[in-house]
């Protein structure tokens, strides 16, 4: 096809996509001149372009639509539902013709005349006078024109750039390895680092090129909702939010079908007919909201409707009737688990099969499709009020966080998102049983089926279970199983490429990726694996009642973090108490009080674990590792010289006498480790870390800088602010430069405007020295509270 | 048809690829085997940032015990996926002499399935390989 024609097809398609939403919005508000103009421009452009090519039918159709619309624009005619439908039909036909032109086919012969005739005004249309009356009622503000510029590029070119960038990254990694091997030359190191960081930026940019705004997907939805609700005799409005969220192009395509299916469900089963809505005290018009937002590495797309919702009792009955579960199981299901039933294969909530849905091809297919791209689906519903379906999808199809493992001579990638835990068989917490041909692990009172990856891959030799590492995998359905591998290598970002058909046919792998050293590896397809070995099938129909009970039965104290404390002692703290591990600048620690204090995230917290006469503790270090413990109400930090590992508490804790804060000692990896008694720790210091008592700080809020810059910082440090003329007593006063505090009570913290103290105010703190300021506040806090 | 051909030997028989089918020729240094793959898939290898599926042409033609393969390997792209083909030897790029002739009936089913026809080249007659038939592997017994 010649370039000009290709451009015509691409441009027309792009415009089509853009105006689909406009036309439905225009129908809802025919007085919306802007939308009318957009649609008019489209048919006008198509007509104009047809002049270059020989497409008489296309020209005739677009001309007819243009004339009808120009009458509306001239105020001679009103945009009725009938006119909108006729214009839509013409646009559909234009779309078909463009497809035919693109495919090099002859344009299918059709009754264009009927379409054109449908544009003719009918007798019952309101006359022009009513339009004029409406036009007088007020114009609307013109919408903001989009400011960003864009050009159209062939996808193939983008892909070439992407793979070029990937090549560069591999070459960079190779070069980095060589540089390391030859010892670092500072003359090379600088430029290399710079190159490296530029490359990272370029890579990020190249990845973004594949991203598309969700608008492309959303654009088609209003039209679909309009057509479908009209077909079903319902009134539905769609509200779209988050169209500016960006998603990988391929991912958008993968989400299209599931999203369409969910919308159809919502309109067909969810939204009630208008009469039913009115009698339920709702608005006649149902609303469906589709919203998207990005959270970390995932996109959440929520589809909510204000329809009749899902009634758990009815759902249970239907599931029992369908033979999915028996009535005893049904009775044991929680509400949440009941809702999960809609994902069971072949299950339909519809009372009868309609043309649109309820044919048994349902949410199970939606879930399978979303899981295939590494996402998940959940649903929540309130009977009578509506239903929300959440789709969680990864940002991009092509990069997944992976764990590399070896089995025999093979290296494989496992997607991180499924992995819940990794344990070595040497650990006494795991016992391995062979039952029949299967392997079962007993791990934390749970019996977990295990696959020998060597057997799965058909290798001559299976994994040696006495030396194996077990990777525990939790499926989206909640089922837990383990795979035994020889070794776990590393975490890597896997840039996945699709498999050729011959390898896809094996049914075990989900893509290929290259390791940093350029070796190709395969990614294991976890859902396919679980399917093949029947590890997930049962849970699909029977939500994991058993599994949920087991999780709660787990002893939460089994895991500990082992670290080297100051004073060279090895200590362990139970995992559940640890909220975060911070690395803090040593200068932020205030050691003037009996208990050292430090500011973290704007809070002032006690930090324990320093041996006060240990010189090493703060003076010779720039930073200190601090374990942040939390009992839910207050936080305490515990200082560590280094973190050693996480471990399981396998043996008994032997009570210790010497330290009241130790629960006892325990043997971990043949070393004696002190187990910290977090209960006593919080009993003693917890109050200090609590934010219940808010100290006060006096501040001259008349000063703009104090109000704008200082106040938020002091507030976030846990202080309440008192004005200059507030009669109450403040714990501390912060003053600027030479100003005098109004009524001094507690400490005075003096800030200076210039970095250099230069004799004027030797005890003052430079006003942008955040750490020093927070330490000063911490000092005041420890005296006051 | 324009008319440069890559002359190779597959299972000790002359076979040519249309130059337009060949994306590049690479030197394979390591092949990562793929567990559970059909035996004509030798494994994966890397070409810059891409993983190539390595197809042993000899086994794809249903020949059980191939000898050593040429480290140089023609790369083809079918259906968006790149494949590297193992052949006995990569010999030369030759020009086609005259038009292709239809297949003789005596080639045997596997060769017939993977051939576009026969041609004369400067180096003698050869079979023109149909690459997409080749990478789909030997046909099962029913053929």
Automatic annotation (TrEMBL), chain A:
<dbReference type="InterPro" id="IPR036061">
    <property type="entry name" value="CheW-like_dom_sf"/>
</dbReference>
<dbReference type="Pfam" id="PF02895">
    <property type="entry name" value="H-kinase_dim"/>
</dbReference>
<dbReference type="GO" id="GO:0005737">
    <property type="term" value="C:cytoplasm"/>
</dbReference>
<comment type="function">
    <text>Involved in the transmission of sensory signals from the chemoreceptors to the flagellar motors. CheA is autophosphorylated; it can transfer its phosphate group to either CheB or CheY.</text>
</comment>
<keyword id="KW-0808">Transferase</keyword>
<feature type="region of interest" description="Disordered">
    <location>
        <begin position="121"/>
        <end position="147"/>
    </location>
</feature>
<dbReference type="GO" id="GO:0006935">
    <property type="term" value="P:chemotaxis"/>
</dbReference>
<feature type="domain" description="Histidine kinase">
    <location>
        <begin position="146"/>
        <end position="397"/>
    </location>
</feature>
<dbReference type="InterPro" id="IPR051315">
    <property type="entry name" value="Bact_Chemotaxis_CheA"/>
</dbReference>
<dbReference type="InterPro" id="IPR004105">
    <property type="entry name" value="CheA-like_dim"/>
</dbReference>
<dbReference type="Pfam" id="PF02518">
    <property type="entry name" value="HATPase_c"/>
</dbReference>
<keyword id="KW-0902">Two-component regulatory system</keyword>
<feature type="domain" description="HPt">
    <location>
        <begin position="1"/>
        <end position="101"/>
    </location>
</feature>
<dbReference type="InterPro" id="IPR002545">
    <property type="entry name" value="CheW-lke_dom"/>
</dbReference>
<dbReference type="InterPro" id="IPR003594">
    <property type="entry name" value="HATPase_dom"/>
</dbReference>
<keyword id="KW-0597">Phosphoprotein</keyword>
<dbReference type="InterPro" id="IPR036641">
    <property type="entry name" value="HPT_dom_sf"/>
</dbReference>
<dbReference type="InterPro" id="IPR036890">
    <property type="entry name" value="HATPase_C_sf"/>
</dbReference>
<keyword id="KW-0418">Kinase</keyword>
<dbReference type="GO" id="GO:0000155">
    <property type="term" value="F:phosphorelay sensor kinase activity"/>
</dbReference>
<dbReference type="Pfam" id="PF01627">
    <property type="entry name" value="Hpt"/>
</dbReference>
<dbReference type="InterPro" id="IPR005467">
    <property type="entry name" value="His_kinase_dom"/>
</dbReference>
UniProtKB/TrEMBL annotation, chain B:
<dbReference type="InterPro" id="IPR002545">
    <property type="entry name" value="CheW-lke_dom"/>
</dbReference>
<dbReference type="InterPro" id="IPR036061">
    <property type="entry name" value="CheW-like_dom_sf"/>
</dbReference>
<dbReference type="GO" id="GO:0005829">
    <property type="term" value="C:cytosol"/>
</dbReference>
<dbReference type="GO" id="GO:0006935">
    <property type="term" value="P:chemotaxis"/>
</dbReference>
<protein>
    <submittedName>
        <fullName>Chemotaxis protein CheW</fullName>
    </submittedName>
</protein>
<feature type="domain" description="CheW-like">
    <location>
        <begin position="2"/>
        <end position="140"/>
    </location>
</feature>
<dbReference type="InterPro" id="IPR039315">
    <property type="entry name" value="CheW"/>
</dbReference>
<dbReference type="Pfam" id="PF01584">
    <property type="entry name" value="CheW"/>
</dbReference>
<dbReference type="GO" id="GO:0007165">
    <property type="term" value="P:signal transduction"/>
</dbReference>
